[in-house]
Write a structure and sequence with these properties.
This protein is α+β, with helices and mostly antiparallel strands. The chain is 30% helix and 25% strand. The protein has 13 helices and 20 strands. The structure holds flavin-adenine dinucleotide. This is FAD-binding domain-containing protein.
Length: 410
């Protein structure tokens, strides 16, 4: 590791979600002083799965995050079921995934990977100075040129670089002059989990043992996406349905539903899956939005990251992976010797050039995949339809090479 060639940056990260924590870890490792500001007394994560394809897992590994401690299930295949009978219609084996793309296809419980990122950011072992966490700090105002943030509790912070990772409803985004162009999706989603013991009791243990992401539907709005996580102790489902079905206008992560409401949403579904639904726990509604790409991501000393920059439909399972990539990009750009190459402003310009086209492409493909499973990476190949997003393009991405090309082209 080369030593610093100049003073480290004082970095402020707004938001301690998966994106903000990743940025904190990536920048800490380059010797920068990072402070994370979170509006709540602690950033929570929801009880659902999160698949980290190799383009995300690669960064987690390179940052020394204890991926094993986050109890992933290593995904081996994608399985497509017939909606009404559950009969397997198609399988896509991921057999040589690690050999091809360098890491496993990890499926985490979101809470587990959030916990490991917290350790990597704020605990002493690990490269670079420990980051500082300030909870109950809701950012309410920003001066992008001066690098100042004001918080609801009356405090003010100043930083050389501000990473705004405050999620899909980002206030920072508006504070740097972006008015998001978005609409409520015609799709809505219930998520739920079920424990392995319960599945065994119901005779549904193959849902754990398959080590797969399993789909029902996906051609049209209705789709069930199921996968095991937490060392196979939990199975998590995302159940997409037409928003007009219950026309819920409420928002947030915590709108609960009963098993009966869930099962009644899918009257013609495979009876085995309906049995799972009737025994599911922690059923919550997740409202979906379609955001158009924003005109810019950077202003003065502020950059947007994660869902604040590129909220997307969940149908490529790439939202967090794109946030991990954003954070990886900041770590590569603001490395220990960046001042020999460019200023902070030029570095942020590079960040936008590197990240925006790729994340925008994945965002567009996520929207197409909302109602067409053939657009989902793994099920798709560039040969079927020119221009399609492919698993090779997403999982085989070499960010370092891309960055070098960009720097050479300047
Ligand atoms: C149904 C569904 C399934 C998904 N599945 C996957 C998947 O399998 N794989 C995948 O890669 N991605 C998946 N995603 C996407 C992924 O969840 C998101 O892209 C990711 O969590 C975004 O992280 P973030 O840190 O940018 O935002 P968030 O997780 O929203 O974090 C934002 C943080 O900022 C804080 N905050 C907000 N405003 C302020 C403020 N003013 N001041 C201070 N703090 C503030 C919040 O409290 C929060 O802690 C899925 C999404 C959905 C909806």
């Amino acid at each position: 590791m080369p030593s610093r060639t100049d003073s480290p940056l004082n970095v402020a990260v707004i938001g301690a979600g998966l994106g903000g924590l990743s940025a904190a870890v990536a920048l800490r490792r380059q010797g920068h002083q990072v402070t994370v500001y979170e509006r709540y007394d602690f950033a929570g994560e929801v009880g659902a799965s999160l698949s980290a394809a190799s383009n995300g897992s690669r960064f987690l590994e390179s940052w020394g995050v204890d991926v094993k401690a986050a109890k992933p299930v290593i995904l081996k295949k994608l399985i497509m079921h017939e909606w009404a009978s559950g009969t397997v219609q198609n399988e896509y084996g991921l057999g040589d995934y690690k050999a091809k793309f360098g890491t496993e296809y990890n499926n985490f419980h979101r809470i587990d990977i959030h916990k490991e990122l917290i350790k990597s950011a704020f605990e002493a072992p690990g490269e670079g100075p420990q980051c500082t966490l300030n909870v109950n700090h809701k950012a309410t105002s920003l001066d992008a040129d001066a690098g100042t943030i004001q918080f609801e509790n009356g405090t003010v912070a100043t930083a050389d670089l501000i990473v705004a990772a405050d999620g899909i409803r980002s206030l920072s985004r508006s504070l740097i002059g972006i008015t998001p162009d978005f609409e409520m999706s015609t799709s809505c989603c219930y998520r739920c989990i079920i424990g392995a013991d319960k599945l065994r009791e119901l005779g549904l243990e193959d849902y754990i043992n398959n080590e797969a992401i399993e789909y029902w539907g996906g051609f049209g709005i209705d789709k069930i996406v199921m996968s095991p996580c937490s060392n196979g102790e939990v199975v998590s489902c995302y159940c997409f349905y037409p928003a007009k079905h219950n026309n819920l206008r409420d928002d947030g992560w915590n709108i609960s539903a009963t098993p009966q409401q869930l099962v009644d949403t899918f009257p013609d579904l495979d009876p085995r899956m309906r049995t799972l639904m009737l025994n599911a726990e922690d059923i919550k509604m997740w409202r979906l939005y379609r955001h158009q790409p924003y005109p810019y991501w950077v202003k003065g000393r502020v950059c947007l990251l994660g869902d604040a920059a590129h909220p997307m439909m969940p149908d490529q399972s790439q939202g967090s992976c794109m946030a991990f990539e954003d954070a990886g990009a900041l770590g590569l750009i603001f490395d220990r010797t960046f001042r020999e190459k460019y200023t902070v402003a030029e570095g942020l310009g590079l960040y936008e050039k590197l990240r925006k086209p790729r994340a925008t492409r994945v965002q567009a493909a996520s929207f197409r995949a909302r109602e067409d499973l053939n657009e989902r990476i793994g099920w798709s190949s560039g040969a079927d339809k020119p221009g399609k997003l492919t698993i090779e393009e997403v999982c085989g991405y070499n960010m370092q090479g891309h960055l070098e090309e960009l720097i050479n082209s300047l």
